[in-house]
Structure prediction request, 360 residues.
Amino acid sequence: MRTIQASISLVATLIWVGCDDSSQDWTVDITSTSTPYRGAQNGGYYFQTPPPPWANETLTNSACGPPGEIFDKVYREKKNGYNPPYYRDSCNFPKFKIGKESYSMVSVDTRGSDTRLFFTRDNWYVLKIQDDHSPSAREMFWREHAAMLQARHTGVISVIEPNADLSLMSRECQSRSYVMRKVAGHDLSTQVGVSQNLIMEIGRGALKILEKFHDTGLIHGDIHLMNIMLGSSLDVENSIKLIDFGRSMSYIHPSTGLHRNESELKPFTSIFTLNWNILSINELEGKAVSRADDIFRLAEVLITLCTRELKNFGRSSPRTVATQKRNRTFESRVPHRLQEFYRYAMNIGFQERPNSKFLD
Prediction:
């Protein structure tokens, strides 16, 4: 659930040394400022020592059910559950427990226009609190909660901590909160001096984790630089993760296993509050979205990493921007394979399964 301010700030803050066509990676390992360890789960790197309690957790899909089933169930429960029409509790000093450990949150670590994030002192968990009671903000909060539970077993996303006890807070604050396990690393907007080799490696890794996420019956719906985390540039395959699922949607009917039709997959928020530069052509044209739009947005991410700036298409009209994207030409520093990937992503069919090996 990123704000328009956060999205637009990409234009100003994305400054890299360059997309070098040599084989040299100018980046340092982005976990080098802390003490990472290699956990048993997917060989991933984490921030801290000692390792968090879930480090040796075995992931299974035995409880995930048919694609989209958990998402639909949790979404309905959240929507039909306790939802006061207005938020009256400030929830300024939230508390929760995990086992025998109690956490009292004092200061906000990250703030958006509609949420606050509190990091625990052991750097293991993140408490997220929803502050905007508008229908669209609630909708995104419910969808994020549902998506993280549906795709929990994949090992490629931020997940809700199932053992968090929020009963120390008021009923209202409980309804507006959940605890996540902290994802190691930094988002891609922080990358400095990225070589073409590393960009292509990030692309291959991102395609693989998107395939795992899509196979749970979900579309992410908001792929951009700040929603892809990289734990270590030395181990992209095992440390790349997805975060922020407020615009996620279920594209499969759990009961039938059939793909939903286009009328069921229209974006549920207005694009006029969003940054058009990161949107897909379908979004800009008011069409239904699918797995293809996640892939198109990924192509935009990789090209942005290479050109060192987010291309500004202007704000004349959404359809004009869509036409510009459809007819886009590229600078010479954008590798030919990425240009092909962009055009491929632009032409993936509504129900078509994307090729996760396109950049291999």
Summary: Confidence is low (pLDDT under 50) at residues 1-47.
